[in-house]
Design brief:
Elements lengths: L19 H10 L5 H21 L5 E3 L7 H8 L5 H4 L5 H10 L9 E3 L6 E3 L2 E2 L11 H11 L4 E6 L1 H7 L1 E2 L13 H18 L3 E5 L9 H15 L6 E5 L8 H6 L5 E5 L6 H5 L9 E7 L9 H11 L5 E6 L18 H4 L5 H17 L5 H16 L6 H8 L11 H12 L16 H11 L5 H22 L16 H4 L3 E4 L6 E4 L2 E3 L3 E7 L6 H9 L6 E5 L1 H6 L9 H21 L4 E5 L14 H16 L7 E6 L8 H7 L3 E4 L7 H8 L5 E4 L12 H14 L18 H20 L2
Parallel strand pairs: 1-5, 4-6, 5-7, 7-8, 8-9, 9-10, 10-11, 16-17, 17-18, 18-19, 19-20
Antiparallel strand pairs: 2-3, 12-15, 13-14
The structure holds glutamine (GLN) and zinc ion (ZN).
The site of zinc ion has 6 residues, from loops.
InterPro entries: Cbl-indep_Met_Synth_N, Cobalamin-indep_Met_synthase, Met_Synth_C/arc, UROD/MetE-like_sf
Function: Catalyzes the transfer of a methyl group from 5-methyltetrahydrofolate to homocysteine resulting in methionine formation.
Catalytic activity: 5-methyltetrahydropteroyltri-L-glutamate + L-homocysteine = tetrahydropteroyltri-L-glutamate + L-methionine
């Protein structure tokens, strides 16, 4: 039997078109407003989303895609996976939820990490042998009813059991042999109960997301997937089940899902474009609906409707039914491009944000099922926009292209590391265990205000520059007083480490309101990289020179690397990412050269996103790391041996990129390490890393000031692994989110600890 789902989107933004949820959350957390107010804002946002999706004509409107903080946390709470230490706080359900998300004084929050290869962060559930699963929260059912009261029948969305367990980590007290997936059998009855309740409430369809299967999975994990859906599909009274994977090719999991007793399977045909090749071999799809994820949920370009339709047409005979969907949830794109007033009109005509993507889904589905003629005009308009973009002269800058086409291996190679070290030491004359920071100093409200006033035109450039110069002087004086060895200017002029550079390069546009949730109430506004990239004039040199003129100590210039610029932008999809990376690299290379000419002898090029962009499938790692490493080296190899190149990496376990860190060949690499107690140094040793390294000696993510003894201990541990000539001393990351009070205290302690260790050398 064929069962219909109709056109749909896998999820939708929830922070609010004007970030209403962000404001409501933050004012609730600060105690300014009460929970009734928060609930009211949340309810309005949900109603608005359901109505909008319903009125746009989707065949199936999702629900439970709203979250007060994070959908993985929501799932953990629904399933009863709340660690004892949060239950013991004795808070009510909402505040227990926020305690898990944000911590309370006595209890830190759950760990947070990146959601697959996106810049969204989820809270990591903790599962142990004793976790007491049980349907302890009925939010999915309540939301279904809430939408029902508006006359809209929705499709509740919940993270699937395997992805939930695969994303969880083992509870601290679990035996080493334990893995959260061991608990599948105990978890499935809770899913079954939830499905039965949803069925009783009238839900026709439920979506269970299994994106974890777009990454490498072991045979036993695939077997568990089979078991899970055999069991859930075998329930006698249940809604129809729709199971999508997304963020890449589903690989073998697709065969498992195709033969499972479920009614619909979803595939990401944007990130997993080769999936179409295997679909025809899956006879199990003949009695199922295939939701073809042809509208890109991760990027902001208008869909190539003709291309999507021809792909969809090839699927028609393969599945019982084909519906059009998004490749993944639309959580990763902003709300509405029509709200943008300042984007260049031609570029704007090429864009589709969430709202426009819903229209594209509806349109494609109609064209597929009712015929192109019914929607001829809209198809023509869409085609015109896509062709306009394809043909646009402004995408190409022949100077940029001829430059990257002439690149040779030697452009990405520096001199012998030992000679570099000697040359640099001759110029810099640094003491053993040199101290430095990662770049930013606290961004005070005065600094933020000055930037805002300048952007609104309320102060002129001269006033702005003099205020920033004063701030730089204060930061330099502070570092001198602290006795640090390599100083920074503090980055007061930067709103964000990627946006700042994109605003000063050709090939990018910024949005006014293109906010995307990063975690909780935090949003980012990624720039849009639409054309060939170049740097018309120096960006940071003036600030760095000013800082340099204020001190006799070396000042480190501060840049963002090509991989991170790409990772935190919406990138063009009309050429390979590696090619775009080369262009960005050459723009940064120009900046590095200008810093060197201005007498800045130390330049740091940050690549905190190196790990983030690593493909989910290991077979693709090599190709990614090739271009990623090459682009960093292109950016940093244009200088003399005497110029010292630093890089900074954070946010991750470095395991899978550890060889790449060696290959970057920076003179000094600073890394996040305080929380992992310097383990990264052994990892680096094991792959033959032989350059300078600055493992962070204290965690800047917490306001806690580390004491001298604790830093000293970490330094002595580091010296066990690294010879003194190669060891640097610095915090874990930039200081911009901290207050001066704590930063001063922490840096004084860092400095004192270094003195003690130096004295004992
Ligand atoms: N130089 C940047 C800063 O200090 C690095 C930020 C980062 O690692 N994310 O803020
Ligand atoms: Zn960092």
């Amino acid at each position: 039997m064929t069962s219909q789902i109709g056109s749909t989107v896998l999820g939708y933004p929830r922070i609010g078109p004007h970030r209403e949820l962000k404001r409501a959350l933050e004012s609730y957390w600060s105690g300014e407003t009460d929970r009734a107010r928060l609930r009211e804002t949340a309810g309005k946002l949900r109603a608005r989303t359901w109505r909008e999706l319903h009125e746009a004509g989707l065949g199936s409107v999702p629900s439970n895609t709203f979250s007060y903080y994070d959908q993985v946390l929501d799932t953990a709470v629904t399933l009863g996976a709340v660690p004892e230490r949060y239950r013991e706080l004795g808070l009510d359900p909402l505040d227990t939820y926020f305690a898990m998300a944000r911590g309370v004084e006595s209890t830190p929050p759950l760990e947070m990490t990146k959601w697959f290869d996106t810049n969204y962060h989820y809270l990591v559930p903790e599962i142990g042998p004793d976790t007491r699963f049980g349907l302890s929260d009925r939010t999915p059912v309540e939301r279904f009813r809430e939408a029902g009261e508006l006359g809209i029948t929705t499709r509740p969305v919940v993270i699937g059991p395997l992805t939930f367990l695969l994303l969880a980590k083992s509870a601290e007290d679990a035996p080493a042999s334990f893995s959260p997936t061991d608990r599948l059998d105990d978890l499935l009855p809770v899913y079954a109960e939830l499905l039965e309740e949803l069925h009783r409430a009238g839900a026709e369809w439920v979506q269970l997301d299994e994106p974890a299967f777009a990454a490498d999975r072991r045979p036993d994990e695939l077997e568990k997937l089979r078991t899970a859906y055999a069991e859930l599909g075998g329930l006698s009274a249940r809604p129809k089940l729709f199971v999508p994977t997304y963020f890449g090719d589903p690989g073998e999991s697709l065969g498992v899902l195709a033969s499972a007793p479920i009614e619909a399977v979803g595939v990401d045909l944007v990130a997993g474009s080769t999936t179409t090749n295997v679909l025809s071999g899956l006879t199990g799809l003949r009695d199922k609906t295939l939701v073809a994820g042809l509208v890109d949920g991760r990027n902001i370009w208008r869909c190539d409707l003709d291309g999507a339709l021809s792909t969809a047409a090839t699927l028609l005979g393969i599945a019982g039914e084909v519906s059009i969907g998004t490749s993944c949830s639309l959580l990763h794109v902003p709300y509405d491009v029509s709200a943008e007033r300042d984007i260049d009109p031609q570029v704007k005509s090429w864009l589709a944000f969430a709202r426009q993507k819903v229209e594209e889904v509806v349109l494609l589905d109609r064209a597929l099922h009712e015929g192109r003629d019914v929607v001829r005009d809209q198809l023509d308009r869409g085609r015109a926009a896509v062709e306009d973009r394809r043909a646009a002269a402004r995408l190409r800058d022949e100077r940029v292209r001829s430059r990257t086409s002439r690149l040779r291996p030697e452009h990405a190679r520096r001199g012998d590391p030992a000679k570099r070290r000697a040359d640099q030491q001759r110029v810099l004359g640094l003491p053993p265990l040199p101290t430095t920071t990662i770049g930013s100093f606290p961004q005070t409200s005065e600094v933020r205000k000055a930037r805002a006033r300048f952007n609104n035109g309320r102060i002129d450039r001269a006033t702005y520059e003099s205020e920033m110069t004063d701030e730089i002087r204060r930061v330099i004086e502070l570092q001198e007083a602290l006795g640090l060895d390599v100083l920074v200017h503090g980055e007061p002029e930067r709103n964000d480490m990627v946006q700042y550079f994109s605003e000063h390069m050709e090939g990018f546009v910024s949005t006014e309101n293109g906010w995307v949730q990063s975690y909780g109430s935090r949003c980012v506004r990624p720039p849009i990289l639409f054309g060939d990239v170049s740097r018309p004039e120096p960006i940071t040199v003036g600030w760095a020179e000013r800082a340099r003129s204020m001190t006799d100590k070396p000042v480190k210039g501060m840049l963002t690397g090509p991989v991170t610029i790409l990772a935190w932008s919406f990138v063009r999809n009309d050429q390979p990412l590696g090619e775009t990376a080369n262009q960005v690299a050459m723009a940064i290379r120009d900046e590095v050269a200008d810093l060197e000419s201005a007498g800045v002898g130390v330049v740091q090029v940050d690549e905190p996103a190196l790990r983030e962009l690593l493909p989910l499938r290991s077979e693709q790692h090599g190709q990614y790391l090739d271009w990623a490493v090459r682009s960093f080296r292109l950016a940093t190899s244009g200088v003399s041996d005497a110029t010292q190149i630093h890089t900074h990496l954070c946010y991750s376990e470095f395991g899978e990129v550890i060889n790449a860190i060696v290959d970057l060949d920076a003179d000094v690499t600073s890394l996040e390490a305080a929380r992992s107690r310097m383990e990264v140094l052994d990892d680096l040793n094991s792959v033959g890393f032989a350059n300078g390294v600055g493992p962070g000696v204290y965690d800047i993510h917490s306001p806690r000031v580390p004491d001298v003894g604790e830093i000293e201990k970490l330094l002595r541990a580091a010296l066990e692994a690294v010879p003194v000539e190669r060891l640097w001393v610095n915090p874990d990351c930039g200081l911009k989110t901290r207050g001066y009070e704590e930063v001063k205290a922490a840096l004084i302690n860092m400095r004192t600890a270094v003195r003690r260790v130096r004295d004992s050398l």
